[in-house]
Write a structure and sequence with these properties.
Low-confidence stretches: 97-128
Structural class: alpha/beta
Number of strands: 7
Largest sheet: 7 strands, mixed
CATH superfamily of the domain at 3-81 and 239-297: HUPs
Radius of gyration: 19 Å
Number of helices: 6
């Protein structure tokens, strides 16, 4: 069994515990399984930008896929679809496109973003998306599930460390990743219209309550003026502490910027280490993100 396979199995086992984290994990596993049972695996993608929340979500999603594709998983560890979860039907298509564009409640981003990784220097912001495609690598061939359909929409001036982490994770989890610069809405339209996103009906999003635009239902379709898909929020009710409990207890790799005092990641131009984690005695000068005591100050480094 590979290290990742063992880690995914550990998620399924952790979800059987009766404590707070175990219940949150189990609820997330069941929600994901319910949506997959309704829409089908091929119709679901994940929005992944390398942040701590979507890293938790990716690991949970991969655990569900692992359970669905490995024959000898004990039956009590397999997440089951719940009849108590109502997966909403797609709304009727909007004929008119004259209505004003409103921001999507849970997929928020700056209006523009830089070109993708191959560009050596930033260029003038452009509302049209630029995409690179990362095929699953051969070192992920041992994983039992199909490639994970994924979309990565960058912020303007992204952290190089974050980009590198996303690409490393792409290989680790066998992700079929499309990376877009440009506006959020245009990127989604491009993704859903291209071969990579063709047939996608639902997108897993790592939004939590308390995030900007975090007051959303667990399952909801995008606004009529946006590309239509079901937004799926399995960790909506998780706290900052829950996220770090999961990552640390289950030894899930996360972006190393979080070990350098960053608690929320945006652009290099609007994100600094959290001032509450300043520690001159630390080698880096900062305590890691998981040592933040006041979760309400999670975004204190954003400006």
């Amino acid at each position: 069994m590979s290290d990742l396979s063992a880690s995914l199995l550990a998620v399924l086992e952790r979800g059987t515990k009766a404590d707070r984290l175990g219940k949150l994990i189990q609820e997330a596993l069941v929600l994901v399984q319910t949506v997959l049972s309704d829409l089908g695996e091929e119709a679901v993608a994940i929005s992944f930008n390398g942040g701590k929340d979507c890293t938790v979500l990716l690991h949970i999603y991969a655990a569900v896929l692992y359970a669905n594709h490995v024959a000898d998983i004990p039956s009590h560890l397999r997440p089951l679809a719940s009849k108590d979860i109502n997966v909403p039907s797609a709304p009727p298509p909007v004929v008119s496109h004259d209505q004003p564009i409103s921001p999507s409640p849970s997929l928020s981003a700056p209006a523009t973003a830089p070109p993708p990784l191959p560009s050596p220097t930033p260029s003038t912001p452009n509302p049209h998306p630029h995409a690179t495609h990362r095929h699953p690598q051969s070192d992920s061939a041992s994983l039992p599930y199909p490639p994970i359909r994924s979309i990565y929409i960058t912020a303007p001036n992204p952290f190089p460390t974050l980009d590198e982490f996303v690409l490393d994770i792409t290989k680790r989890y066998a992700m079929d990743l499309y990376r877009f610069g440009g506006g959020m809405k245009a990127a989604l339209e491009e993704y859903l219209g291209c071969g990579g996103g063709k047939g996608v009906k639902g997108v897993l999003v790592g939004t939590r309550q308390g995030d900007p635009n975090g007051e959303v239902p667990i399952l909801a379709y995008t606004d009529p003026s946006w590309p239509q898909f079901l937004r799926i929020h399995p960790i909506l009710h998780w706290t900052y502490a829950d996220v770090w409990d999961f990552l640390l207890e289950l030894h899930v790799p996360y972006c190393t910027l979080y070990d350098e005092g960053y608690t929320s990641l945006g652009s290099t131009t609007n994100t600094s280490p959290n001032p509450l984690l300043r520690n001159p005695s630390s080698e880096s000068g900062w305590d890691p993100a998981y040592k933040l005591q006041d979760a309400s100050q999670e975004r204190a480094g954003r400006h």
